[in-house]
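Hi R.,

As promised, here are both runs. First protein below:
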Amino acid sequence: MPDARQFDLVHDRGLTRIWIGADALDRSRAELSDWVRGRRAFVISSAPVRELHGEWLERELSAASAVTALDVADGEAGKTLDTMGRLAREMVAAGGKRDSRLLTLGGGSVGDVGGFAAACFLRGIEYAHVPTTLLAQVDASIGGKTGVNLPEAKNSVGAFHQPRFVIADARTLSTLPRELIRQGLFEVVKAAILADSALFDLLEVRLRELLEPESESLGSVVEAAAAIKIAVVSADEREADRRRLLNLGHTLGHALETCAGHGALAHGDAVGHGMLFAVELALPRGLRDRDAQRIRALVGRLAPARLPSFDPDSLIRAMSRDKKARETGLSWVLPLRVGAAEVVDDLDPALIGELLASFLTGFVESR
């Protein structure tokens, strides 16, 4: 895997320094030590991740006055208001202050709830992400979106709160099961469809190799996908315009996760189905059959998990409650071709319902 590359994501509160690559923790050591020096550092993680990487990270925090470990449940089960409240109480009890530091160690869900805790604790403290999954390294840890789920909608309570650092060390990916690599690659495919046809080409050629945790190509793919998100967020931090493109596959995807019950359907699989549905919506608007077939084939090779039976009307209601919905209705991100996409606000709700019913039936019957 390549040596770590440094990115600076400039935003309205300053900048987030991001290291991505095989020696990211080594490259970040000096700045990380200065950042925690003399301060209490809270490390939020799940038990399995802490067992793998906790000692490794805490050795890097030797300059802190104290290091307090806080546990959350892995996956969507940890993304609740109850978890957030418990973390805040534990931080108060441990003596947390406005200039304490917080680090998240783990996947996207740990980063979401840990980042939200940092955003809310004492009206906001500085924090850093140390993402250990492919999905978190290419997507969830970048951009400052934090939050937790409600039963009615995913990520519906949260805040924009940019991390001070993101340390995406590729060495952590070698400990992942193949399934978590597969889930993360859906977000890589999304990035390629949006903005990088060369990355899409590479995925088509090397997908089988990339599915292995110790793939030599995985590091460069992480860097390419993360660079796309960094560029988009830098141009539109608060999702007023261009950042909405990053929701490709997520409008339906989040509804599928909500209606299945948070955690029952993995995020990558849900986004995969969402991208396939976006292709169906895009075809009448001019997406070429050749590009549609390439997207379907690549997503299909990642084999999104079979869907349970869904009522299309329930999914539409869930989409209407999604955090991306506006008073004027739903926006959809549709591919224009491989390497480009658009945000569409004028789709006929009746057409969406008709295509969704057909899409769900066709998928179930084809499986």
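And here is the second one, sequence first, then its structure tokens:
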Amino acid sequence: MTDCKRISSRDNAFYKSLLRLTSSSRERRDVAQTLLDGPHLLRAWLDSGRFPSHILLSPSALDDTEISRLRAECPNVPCTLLDESLFKQLSELKTPNGLLTLIDIPQPAHTFTPGFALLLEDIQDPGNLGSILRSAAAAGCDAVYLSQGCADAWSPRVLRAAMGGHFVLAINESSNLLDIASHFDGSLLAASLEAETELYDCELRGKIAFAIGNEGAGLSAELQGKAQQRFIIPMPGKVESLNAAAATAVCLFEAARQRR
């Protein structure tokens, strides 16, 4: 197991670069790296067949059995021990669990052709976006395309909410959704309050993609116009709508049910 170096100064250049990663989406894009917070995300990352670039620990993590096991699976990965106060600045958790890992953000293959995809237009809440990615991974989706107006998919909050969903999806940020929709050779579906067809009557067993709109404004008219099938989610209860993450989960798992 690699011995840990120690950082105790906020002026350390490596530590400053880590701080920028936690707060700046531009920094994450520029260096194509991000931080995973906690053992669960590292476990999911390792299960996807990848290794981190660097392991970061607080002193309290040195005696943690689970973290020690994970470190043992990364024998050639550099490790740095951060003073407790420095570590807390990097973690958004109220009670940090003592483990952060630096990873290289996966870059999706340009030649990949999805069979079950999501097109996300201007999803701005990190919690919503993370929940959508988690549902997409659980339902067997293989690709997600995000418009430029979406929240940063690789931010700490989105990563925590998705609980490892990122690592089994081809995530394409800053996508031109109209162009993706025009060239998708399957069926594009979109929810619409004006639709007469219910979601449960749609054919979802072939090559499909759901287009999901902004939390407040919904899906743009231009992207709605690209959909081959519009549908409504029946809601017999006394509410008028679902939030974006809940509506997406309903759509994804109806598709999963049909595609069993």
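A quick note on the second one: DSSP finds ten helices and eleven strands in the chain. Let me know what you think.

Best,
J.
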